[in-house]
Amino acid sequence: MEKFPHLLVLDFDGVICDGLQEYFQTSRQVCRQIWPNLPPEKLDRQRDNFYRLRPVIETGWEMPLLLQALATGVDPGTIEKTWPTVAQTLQNQEQIGKFQLAPALDQVRDNYINQDLTYWLELHRFYPGVIEQLNHWLQSPYPRWLYIVTTKEGRFVQQLLQNQKVNFPLGQIIGKEIKQPKYKTLQQLLIKHNYASDQLWFVEDMLTTLQTVADQPALGQSSLFLADWGYNTSHTRESAKNNCRFHLISLQQFSRPFGQW
């Protein structure tokens, strides 16, 4: 493996930032809007289950669906084992899906930012050492290019990083507003910078996302890292460890020189 990435791409949630408290509060607000008959105390009782089961979710718009499922008595064990099926059943039953839930989440976030920015910012915490590491990379010759590619709206990421005094170039934060899978964005970045795929390193906390990237011939030589501190399970981490295509990385390694990754 090359010692330095020319192009280092990071996921945001679960790699840079832990937003579990914000996910819960925002999802709770959306549930209150969409299912007004659900008693708030039923939602509140599911906080810990929601935190524990967050790794089953692939994209953020499913979060209110997860909270609604828990609050209406769907067994957490069933959710853990068969979330895609549970989610599909719920969408059919409730006649609801991504096109209602995603804008509702964004609207709640925008309302927080406009009305109570301090509270919203305080719901997020950054993993230890990560902010310092971002600042270090932004000032050093390697990586040549540093990007954040996330399924969150880019404007929310900008707001959070600005609050941490990270002067991250806005053109290098690519959020869900571009409406395409991450692998496509990675391919476009390689073309844009005229790099070979072995010059790209990608850090992500969702193994399914890494697998999709690994399946693309154009990204066949890229180095793919699963962040073991993110929203994944011991089972997922074990799978990554046993697959030579992926590298399991710890938070300690993340803050070390690239040669120690």
UniProtKB/TrEMBL annotation:
InterPro entries: HAD-like_hydrolase_sf, HAD-like_sf, HAD_sf. Keywords: Hydrolase. Gene3D superfamilies: HAD superfamily/HAD-like. It comes from the Bacteria. The keyword Hydrolase applies. The keyword Cytoplasm does not apply. Signal peptide: none annotated. One of its GO terms (molecular function) is hydrolase activity. This is HAD family hydrolase. It comes from Synechocystis salina LEGE 00031. The lineage of its organism: Bacteria, Bacillati, Cyanobacteriota, Cyanophyceae, Synechococcales.
